[in-house]
Amino acid sequence: MAEPSELPIHDLLGGETIARIVAGFYRRVPGDPILGPMYPAHDLAGAEARLRSFLIYRFGGPPDYLRDRGHPRLRQRHAPFALDQAARDRWMQLMLAAIDEQGVAPTYREYLERFLGDIATFLINRA
Ligand code: HEM
Questions:
Q1: 4, 38, 70, 100 - which has most CB atoms within 10 Å?
Q2: 14-20: long-range contacts at Cβ-Cβ below 8 A with a sequence spacing of 24 or more?
Q3: Which residue's alpha carbon is nearest to atom 10 within ligand 1?
Q4: Residue nearest to atom 41 of ligand 1 (CA)
Q5: What's the predicted TM-score (pTM) here?
Q6: Could you tell me if the CB of 120 is within 6 A of ligand 1?
Q7: DSSP 89-111
């Protein structure tokens, strides 16, 4: 039988857990030598809110992100940042650490690693 291509992660984990994962990610960003300088130091809370809202929407929860930010246009919105393989791998490393901190079940963790990893690879814009 064919597997569903997308899991309803918002229903499975809950918005609270998604919010805690994103908070854990942003807690790690400022101290990171690659990612720290890329993010707006004066608006980390805003950046956290944007990613949280996007993931809740993308994982099947309320689409507040679309109302507030419009179409995601992620390639375009990441164009100002030098996103090479090392930045991509570090983003995934911090995100997976935040996911592991929440004790996400292995099946969902694996799914998230593939789902987020594919988007992260797609966002690479520098050799
Ligand atoms: C590959 C490594 C990545 C790097 C280095 C990176 C870096 C950044 C930076 C510096 C920002 C600006 C922060 C802000 O002010 O909002 C940003 C925004 C954002 N990123 Fe990433 N990002 C990466 C991957 C991803 C992935 C995989 C996703 C989605 C799963 C994602 C989703 C977003 C979203 C939704 C925003 C806010 C867009 C907006 O509404 O303005 N990013 N990212």
A1: 38
A2: 15/56, 15/61, 17/102, 17/104, 18/52, 18/55, 18/56, 18/59, 18/61, 19/52, 19/56, 20/101, 20/102
A3: 39
A4: 77
A5: 0.96
A6: yes
A7: HHHHHHHHHHHHHTT--HHHHHH
- Helix (H) or strand (E) holding 66, with range, is helix 64-69
Q: Indicate the DSSP class of residue 42.
A: G
CA 81 / ligand 1 centre spacing (Å):
9
The residue with tokens 């679309």 is 66
- Residues for the chain: how many in total? 127
Question: pLDDT tens digits, residue range 41-83?
Answer: 999 999 999 999 999 999 999 999 999 999 999 999 999 999 9
- Give the per-residue pLDDT at 4: 55
**Reduced to 3 states, what is the DSSP secondary structure of residue 76?**
helix
What distance in angstroms lies between residue 77's CA and the mean position of ligand 1's atoms? 8
Domain extents in the chain = 10-122
